[in-house]
Design a protein that fits this description.
By secondary structure, this protein is mainly alpha-helical. Helix content is about 95%, strand content about 0%. It contains three helices and no strands. The chain is rod-shaped.
Length: about 180
């Protein structure tokens, strides 16, 4: 397997090299020289014109066949690369669609979070109002309790005075009872 794939790789490199060389300036110069020499040979009476045309036609035909094969190999290879690129583009498109869906979901989540934050802010405002009301109520309760305490204190001091007065009266009554007992 490895030997076959290595051979194919070597042949592909040779084919790529030949295809590259055929499309280059040195190839144009070599072909021009070759055709010029081919037509000069019958003029110089080195080869007969018919034989030169036969050989030239055969060489050019073989070269055209091989060039067609090499060019088709290049086209096939380019086509494979294009297919690979198309597959990559499709995968990238799918990834982009997935990313767009994720972005939409994140946007929805952000909207929900924003709504939650607004609700929390409203709740905080309500709580602050409740705290202010409680503070006001506590202040009122504290005032009324202070007033009750003041009243109780004043009642206690007046009760103390009354109790003291009653004690004095009881003490007097005891003294009078004691005097009456002695008499």
């Amino acid at each position: 397997m490895k030997k076959d794939s290595e051979k194919i790789e070597v042949l592909e490199k040779i084919a790529n090299g030949i295809t590259w060389w055929i499309g280059s300036i040195p190839s144009l110069i070599v072909h021009t020289l070759f055709f010029t020499i081919s037509f000069l040979l019958p003029l110089l009476h080195i080869v007969e014109f018919d034989k030169m045309l036969l050989i030239l036609t055969t060489v050019v035909s073989l070269e055209a066949i091989y060039l067609a094969i090499f060019i088709q190999m290049s086209v096939n290879k380019s086509h494979e690369k294009i297919e690979d690129i198309q597959e990559d583009i499709e995968e990238i498109s799918e990834d982009i669609e997935d990313i767009q869906e994720d972005i939409e979901e994140i946007s929805e989540d952000i909207e929900e979070i924003s709504e939650d934050i607004e609700e929390i802010n409203e709740d905080i405002e309500d709580i602050q109002e409740d705290i202010e009301e409680i503070n006001e109520e506590e202040e009122e309760e504290e005032r009324s309790e202070r007033a009750k305490n003041v009243m109780l204190k004043s009642n206690v001091s007046s009760n103390k005075n009354e109790i003291k007065a009653l004690k004095d009266i009881i003490a007097q009554l005891k003294d009078e009872i004691d005097q009456l007992k002695k008499e």
